[in-house]
Design goal:
Layout (H helix, E strand, L loop, with lengths): L6 H11 L25 H14 L3 E9 L2 E10 L2 E8 L2 E8 L2 E6 L1 H8 L2 H7 L4 E4 L6 H5 L3 H6 L9 E2 L4 E3 L2 E7 L5 E5 L6 E5 L6 E5 L14 E2 L4
Parallel strand pairs: 6-13
Antiparallel strand pairs: 1-2, 1-12, 2-3, 3-4, 4-5, 5-6, 7-9, 8-9, 9-10, 10-11, 11-12
Helix pairs in contact: 3-4
């Protein structure tokens, strides 16, 4: 499986990181109580509260899409520390993913595997079968980052200039939200009252977006059985 194309996983990781990288990484105080409405705080305070809330969440669900260099990539994933999964799609590829107990499990049809491996024999061998590999396997390590909330949140580091808090509040999926915007126009929607979770992120450049739901209660996929095991590399 050394011929496995990593562009698929890397592209999906870029999707997850892109809208969020608009926000400068700030200090996180996981024990800080959040009482005041977020619209009464500075942009830096709102961001710190949101990052802390996401770190504290036991799990959450991410649904998003983005155009990566002309390729539309879509993710539908549940995440928690070391456990998660769901589906990833790009044109010609649909892959199911599970992360559990230090192992990555992936499954795709023959057409998808051929596009990823460029090998018909490999595609026929593993089509519609769960493939299991430890997260140390270089060909599958990138997939682990897509389902691990700790790794995902750790990618939110790259600033894009000054961030500002837009005046007033907005609404996202029926919830009152504070909106942060960076110099490029990327926006992050954060719950104004209650726990200040990140509700959504929108990229101004590509039209990509991420939506966050099911905080603390995201459904986790079952761990596959009878998977074809690959060694670590």
């Amino acid at each position: 499986m050394r011929t496995l194309s990593r562009n698929f996983a890397v592209g999906a990781i870029a999707l997850l990181a892109l809208p969020m990288s608009a926000i400068t990484r700030g200090p996180v105080n996981a024990t800080e109580a959040v009482n005041a409405a977020e619209d009464s705080k500075t942009a830096a305070q709102v961001w710190a509260d949101a990052k802390a809330a996401m770190v504290q969440a036991r799990s959450f669900h991410v649904l998003g899409h983005d155009d990566q260099q002309g390729t539309d990539v879509t993710v539908n994933l549940s995440m928690s520390p070391g456990r998660g999964g769901g589906s990833i799609q790009e044109p010609g590829v649909v892959m199911e993913l599970v992360l559990a107990k230090g192992n990555v499990y992936v499954k795709a049809d023959e057409k998808s595997w051929f596009k990823l491996t460029h090998s018909q024999s490999t595609a026929e061998l593993v089509a519609n079968r769960w493939i299991e590999a430890p997260v140390t396997n270089a060909d599958f390590a990138s997939f682990a980052q897509l389902a691990d909330s700790t790794k995902f949140l750790g990618t939110i580091t790259a600033p894009k200039g000054q961030i500002t808090k837009l005046p007033g509040t907005s609404t996202w999926d029926g919830r009152k939200a504070v909106v942060l915007e960076d110099a490029t126009g990327d926006k992050l929607y954060i719950a104004d009252t209650g726990t200040p979770y990140m509700l959504a992120a929108k990229s101004s450049g590509t039209g990509g977006s991420l939506t966050f739901t099911d905080f603390g209660d995201a459904p986790m996929p079952a761990v596959p059985t009878n998977a074809l095991s690959l060694p670590g590399m």
